[in-house]
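Hey,
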Amino acid sequence: MDSDILIVLDSTIMSAGAFSLLIDLPRQHDLKVDVQIGLDVAKTSRCVFNHVDLTTTPKTYLDYFKTFPGGINTSLVDISKSLICRESLVSPDDGYQGAVIVKTNLNCGGTPEFDGLKRSGRLPQGLIKQNYSNARFMDPGNYPIYKNVCDVPPGVWENPDLIVQQFHSEMDDRGRYCLRHWYVLGSKGFQTMNVSEKPIVKGRNILDRQLLDEPIPAALLQEKERLGVDYGRIDYIVSDGEAVLFDVNRTPSIRKETAARYQKQFQEISMGVFDFLD
């Protein structure tokens, strides 16, 4: 075998923090880690790691993964919002009365797919001037929130590339919005919480980060098994005592400061890689 773990990417784009975690931590356990970009060269390994940064993993990659004795995230091949958030989707005539949020069906606003089109020079003309009826990409930090379904623009309902989801929120004792992250690798994992004054808790608007010491909600454990999540970050909140799943990211972007802040926890969950090595 060429390696113990072969990380397969679709492009050279990977955050420095994520790259450090995926490469350095397994090596601390004396494992040989190799990286492959694209499918031009076939390699051998004890375990292949699906790190294709697209909402749906292409069939050519899935066929390649089948040639390996072990795999990480080789079953997590579709992370579209309509699949991940199926329990909280809204239609115009289902009678839901609460606030809603409009998102792309593509993960992360379709950013990876948009970047791929941009690199290949195949971006459609007039893309920036698109409206809701033909929008496929959006800024995930600015998904629009509406008080009820009546306020949702008609073009949204006509567009199969957009989804409308119930907008639930979790607030801390200071009235700030909370978003929980469950980082997982195999049977190992840990949870954090980010806090913001903005309803979409993301990036620069985060005011506080903290480590959580709480049991994983049973509903999330079930979703992890249903979706086939071996590695990644699961985003959720707890509203009215119930866990509400927001997102599953197979290729989470991990900032250097986040990796440093939770260095001990990431080292601990790195042991989960042995769940996939015979």
